Amino acid sequence: MAKETFVEQIADIEQDFPQWYTDVVLKTKLVDYGPVKGTMVIRPYGYAIWENIQKELDKRFKAQGVENAYFPLLIPMSFFTKEAEHVEGFAPEVAVVTVAGGEKLAEPLAIRPTSETIIGTMFSKWVQSYRELPMKVNQWCNVMRWEKTTRPFLRTSEFLWQEGHTVHSTAEEAEEATMTMLGVYKEFAENCLAIPVITGKKTEKEKFAGAVATYGMEAMMHDGKSLQAGTSHYLGTNFSEAFDIRFLDSDGTHKTAFTSSWGVSTRLIGAIIMTHGDERGLVLPPVVAPVQCVIVPIAARKGGVVEACESLKAELEKAGLRVAFDNSDNSPGWKFNEWEMKGVPVRIELGPRDIEAGKMLCARRDTLEKGEYPLENAVESVKALLDEVQKNMLEKARKHRDSHIVYADSMKGILDGVEGGNFVKAGWCGCRACEEKIKEETAATARVYAEGETAEKCAVCGEKSKHVIIYARAY
RNA sequence: UGAGGCAUAGCGCAGUUUGGUAGCGCGCUUGGUUAGGGACCAAGAGGUCGUGGGUUCAAGUCCCGUUGCCUCAACCA
Fold first, then answer.
1. Which pTM was predicted?
2. Rounded to the nearest 10 degrees, how much is the dihedral formed by the CA atoms of A56, A58, A62, A65?
3. Which among A27, A122, A262, A280 has most CB atoms closer than 10 A?
């Protein structure tokens, strides 16, 4: 029976979490494997989550004066070679088109792994005067990176994302934009996805190829591993020099501009699943859930039940809620499990007994609690319940994370910490050798600098500590 | 690229040791009974056994080749 298989797989949650994850993703019909290795076909239910993420982010981008635009999928290889670090970093994972129209191309075309190079090229044409700055554009698109090992949503060869790119007349302003967008991501992750994140600067080793500084937001999955959920890069003049993005300043001289870029991807959907998912399947935060509330009829053939469900659905939809009415002829128990697996935040059970009493039974997905509410104020009750679920999910995730942050002052301490499923804060002398030694011995990487914290000495070499680093094993 | 494994119905698998009518569970279709936590009965549909060759009266099964996929290692903002 399907359920037994599912539960058996769930039982492996601690040992083999990614397998559990993959099974849930496939069973809930979010995606299928794609025909090309490492790609996925996003089904309507999964794509609806993405659309809601887009909607919420676009609102926030607009508030920052960012406009949406679109740039080509294919980028001449020569564009990549203009920024040395960038090409070196991305070369191993770029897919290249060499033949088109039946003929070998004079210049190979890269399928974009990210668009700094093509957008930089366009910025150089667009930017003339300081009056046009800052310039802020964002594009929603697909990118391709030829990864060796892949997992649905977390690492796929092709994925959907948004990449924002800004141009500024001063370094300070570009740096500020980098930090502002990082803040937008953090607020979005916490308020919309109910995922608490730690933001901070990345080490030289972990930074974006071609950036002056990379800032990331790291989320703790419930096995204690970290997922890089978004990044914001301060690019300084690295790309504007390579692509000749210059402007005429108010003092009449030509100056090189400063740029930033920032992005989040469909990996966020993976973050939601791995942060909130439980042994029954998905748990989706109400703000981005494709279906916020499902109505399950009981004894649907009895007179008046279907009609009552339909009128309740209409009432809730009128109030702007995303509602489903499951009138299939599966048994109620089957429906309960099905919709729970799909992560719908609130389920309403409506049967003859309830209709007679003027009540409805609401079950919330996050705690699985059931409660009776009057049918009369259904909209208010459901809305309040959704808000409550959203808040509780964030709190629950935050508590889990905060109770899994530990300090260490030795290599063994770091190893024990990450093996116990924790984020480990430890002092670092700042040298590359110590950072690499930790990765070698513990399989943990430096996720971000812990801002404003200090330590006595480096956990590896014992020299004076310059920074505190948050170490974790990562997806 | 190194090591190991897998390929049989939509999905998951058995059958290969010892060659002899193509099987099971789930799902699907039809009809009926059910319904407050994955219901039940009955009847059905569905197969070039990854692929090419060989051995044999006879190959899913044995032999040789080949292709694809998976796991680990490596690689990976």
1. 0.93
2. 130
3. A262
Whole domain around residue A250: which residue ranges?
2-276
CA angle A357, A362, A368 (to 5 degrees): 140
ipTM over 0.90: no
Q: Give the CA-to-C1' distance from A5 to B61 in angstroms.
A: 30
Would residue A56 count as lying in a domain? yes
Residue A396 and residue A308 in one domain? yes
Q: What tens digit of pLDDT does each residue of A257-299 get?
A: 999 999 999 999 999 999 999 888 899 999 999 999 999 999 9
At position A127, the amino acid (one-letter code) is V
Give per-residue pLDDT as tens, A361-394. Answer: 999 999 999 999 999 999 999 999 999 999 999 9
| Contact between the CB of A363 and strand B at under 7 Å | yes
Neighbours of A187 (CB within 10 A): 12
pLDDT band at A11 (very low <50, low <70, confident <90, very high): very low
Q: Are residues A429 and A329 in the same domain?
A: no
Q: Which of residues 297-326 of A touch strand B (CB under 7 A)?
A: 298-301
Q: Is the CB of A329 under 7 A from strand B?
A: yes
- Calpha distance A475→A473 (Å, rounded): 7
For position A357, which CATH number holds?
Answer: 3.40.50.800
Same domain, A358 and A431: no
Provide the pLDDT for residue A155. 87
- Give CA–CA dist A155/A428, Å, rounded: 29
Same domain, A111 and A186: yes
Task: Give residue numbers, 415 to 454 of A, with CB < 7 Å from strand B.
Answer: none
The model's confidence at residue A3, banded by pLDDT at 50, 70 and 90, is very low
Same-domain status, A243 and A325 = no
| Cβ atoms A71, A114 nearer than 8 A | no
Mark which of A370, A400, A430 sits at the end of a domain.
A400
Residue A270 token pair: 């993976």
The reported pLDDT for the residue numbered A117 is: 96
In strand B, the nucleotides that come within 7 Å of a protein beta carbon are: 25-27, 34-39, 69-77
What's the total number of domains in chain A? 3
A409 and A396 together in one domain: no
The pLDDT > 70 percentage for chain A reads 96
Residue A451: give its domain's CATH number. Answer: 3.30.110.30
Domain boundary among A400, A427, A454: A400
Looking at the fold, whether A392 and A418 belong to one and the same domain comes out as no
Q: Provide residues 12-71 of A with CB closer than 7 Å to any strand B atom.
A: 37
